Amino acid sequence: MIAAPVALDPDRPQLRRVGALRFLRGWALRSRDRRFGGISAMRVEGSRVTAITDAGVVLRFALPRGRGAQPLRVEPLSQRDIPDEELHDTESLVLDRHHAWIGFERINVVARYRRDGWRIESFARPPAMRRWRSNLGAEAMVRLPDGRFLVFAEAGRGDDAFSPVLLFAGDPAVRGSPLAVLRYRREPGYRITDAALLSDGRLMTLDRAFGFYAGPSARLAVADIDALTGGSIIAGRTIAVLRAPLTVDNMEALSVAREGGRTIVRIASDDNFIALQRTLLLEFALDEAAP
Fold it and tell me: What does pTM read for this prediction?
């Protein structure tokens, strides 16, 4: 994999601020391996990135710290355990020390994998997800500290201002896991692509939009989720919007961590395996004074 630094604004390289985020560094990533790209979700653990792609592949690499080449590990996900289905459009990811939960669009499945070898341990196709539109399902997933899971559809049907959300009482990859139905309020034109928990328990969401003339934009928002029940509406407050002339693409992946006393926010883009798009990895520090 080859990393090249990018500025927040190519025309104003001194610009370091967007909303409640302070830009730290950014990279455009590429590789000769044709399986690289299409990043739809990622988690950063220490200095290591684990990402999944639209094509059902796991990418693992170190956070770039300089221009040039660095090792990349590419591992296809097991495709033999979900009968009569081809694994593709892997869109959402939750990690713990030994396991990974992965959400699949189109087939509307959540699967639990062992991280050593990426073997499926369990999977489920919850009835409440079967009605989700085939290309708009299981776009974001978060595990709460008490073991519950939130799974977000990218969007609802038609012009619905809300996206369906399921709150699982336990493991969503176990058939019959009890759940409640919630909703996520979308900003006009935007659709959720990923989510992560802040250390204070609030939820950070990443939304993307695309305009024919305006191009892509990304919205980061924060929501309080301390009293979730069936029927709850998750509504985030916008903390930053990236759009031209800022460096932005089809931003789909979000990872948040506490590092050195700061909240570090990283977002990455899905290049759709198209030469005209880029795989970007942008790193910010969250303004702790922001409400």
Answer: 0.94
